[in-house]
Amino acid sequence: MNEAEELQFARQLRLRLNRGLHELPAETTARLQAARQLALSRQRVAASSSVLATVGEYVHSRVERVRIDQLLAALALALCIAFTAYWHADQSISDLEEIDSALLADDLPVAALTDKGFDAWLKSSSASQ
Q1: What is the pLDDT of residue 50?
Q2: Distance CA 52, CA 115 (A)
Q3: Which of 38, 75, 82, 108 could disulfide-link 112, Cβ–Cβ 3.0 to 4.6 Å?
Q4: A single Pfam family, by name (predicted)?
């Protein structure tokens, strides 16, 4: 049988079954309806899932789709950010070390540097030069 013949056979079979459906005795129709209802009552009902399970399924589906090149790109970005933060902190510490060294090596006492009159004298002497 080719495909066209199979389709024709299926149409004829469907027509005969539909015609035969109307000719069934009422008792048989009632038994078929009862069997259908029983089968539907035994069918498992889809259980509602919790919000956490839904979130877990969502995250799991997203993680499965992550490719290795995306993971490596994210890792490289995180390493660059960490290195930049470390370098910036190191530069700040280096600048503070220079200031501390200059203050400790200077002949002036620390109290002179915090004196408001000394600050005014520095500003006036730098303006006069």
Answers
A1: 67
A2: 62
A3: 108
A4: DUF3619
How many other CB atoms are found less than 10 A from the CB of residue 112? 13
Q: Cα(1)–Cα(12) distance, rounded to whole angstroms?
A: 15
CB 95 within 8 A of CB 89: no
SS (H, E, C) 7-19: HHHHHHHHHHHHH
The percentage of residues in the chain with a pLDDT greater than 70, rounded to a whole number, is 83
User: Distance from CA of residue 112 to its chain's centroid?
Assistant: 57
Structure token digits, residue 27: 């008792």
* Residue 30, SS3 per DSSP: helix
